[in-house]
Write a structure and sequence with these properties.
mainly alpha; DNA polymerase, domain 1; 5 helices; globular
Length: about 80
């Protein structure tokens, strides 16, 4: 089984946060989605920011968070503003 921290954009802190909410693999992250994973983490850590949301989406897509396409960035930004 791959370590979450082996994924692009995912460090040790994010790996622990994901595991704490029951996500242990890329497959599980893809199934739940970046937005839902971020919301679950935000419940436990109110400081969860847009960069974490982008990092999760980038991990799902296999790209660095700053390389997400503009439509995805806008969609994530809009979502983030709803829960800021």
């Amino acid at each position: 089984m791959e370590k979450l921290s082996d994924l692009i954009n995912i460090g040790k802190v994010s790996e622990k946060q994901l595991k704490d909410i029951g996500i242990h693999s890329l497959k599980e992250l893809k199934e739940i989605g970046s937005r839902e994973a971020w919301l679950m983490i935000k419940e436990k850590d109110p400081s969860a920011c847009i960069n974490k949301l982008r990092a999760f989406e980038g991990a799902i897509q296999g790209v660095k968070k700053n390389q997400l396409d503009e439509n995805t960035k806008k969609s994530l930004n809009d979502f983030y503003r709803e829960f800021k």
